[in-house]
Design a protein that fits this description.
eight-stranded parallel β-barrel; TIM Barrel; 39% helix
């Protein structure tokens, strides 16, 4: 699991730029990438994700898809990440089968405890750790203290998300997160800046004594 979990967002980069963007992420050393495309049609989503799969073929990168368990079942991805208002993890498991990982976002102690106890959940995300503009209606900020609290209570891989960039990624990893999910700091400046952004994050993450 790479310490920087890069999110390639079609809403920021453009759907046509996603394959090149994920290739740039991989070239910068990112080993875990999620493709996010909230506003694409089903056919557009499928075409974009299939192109990303082709772009990363043979790279060893773990490619995840946001929300869409159906696409995770159809294409060669490693996982699907769902939120509290998406398909429940147990239902997603019936769609994707046993070999695709499932991640779940949590925003408070109750949601976290339920995710930790759910055998369908492989990876738990907590956040937003810091204020974020990555969502139209973000949940309340939980802070680094919640990352520390969560780390003490689960053996599952723990991902921190929300407002993370080069200036604070080391703090997030030091608090116990296995990985920091980053959208804005990766996609800022458009597809042409993705590799530089990712390298900056990887260097900053190294300050926590972790390898990407």
């Amino acid at each position: 699991m790479g310490v920087v979990y890069a999110i390639a967002d079609a809403g920021v980069l453009g759907a046509e730029a996603l394959p090149a963007a994920v290739a740039e992420m991989a070239g910068a050393g990112i080993r875990w990438i999620q493709v996010r495309a909230k506003h694409l049609s089903g056919s557009g989503w499928h075409a974009a994700l299939a192109a990303c799969c082709r772009a990363l073929e043979g790279s060893g990168v773990r490619l995840w898809v946001d929300d869409r368990a159906d696409l995770a079942a159809l294409l060669p991805v490693d996982g699907v990440h769902v939120g509290q208002r998406d398909l429940p993890p147990a239902a997603a498991r019936r769609v994707v089968g046993a070999d695709v990982k499932i991640g779940l976002s949590t925003h408070d102690e109750e949601q976290f405890a339920a995710a930790d106890a759910d055998p369908a959940v492989d990876v738990i995300a907590v956040g937003p750790v810091f204020p974020t503009t990555g969502k139209e209606d973000p949940d309340p900020v939980v802070g680094l203290s919640f990352v520390r609290w969560a780390r003490e209570r689960t053996r599952k891989p723990l991902v921190a998300i929300g407002g993370i960039g080069a200036g604070n990624v080391a703090e997030v990893l030091a608090a116990g997160a296995d990985a920091a999910a980053v959208l804005g700091a990766v996609c800022r400046g458009g597809a042409g800046e993705v590799r530089v952004n990712c390298r900056r994050l990887m260097i900053a993450a190294g300050a926590a004594g972790r390898e990407g």
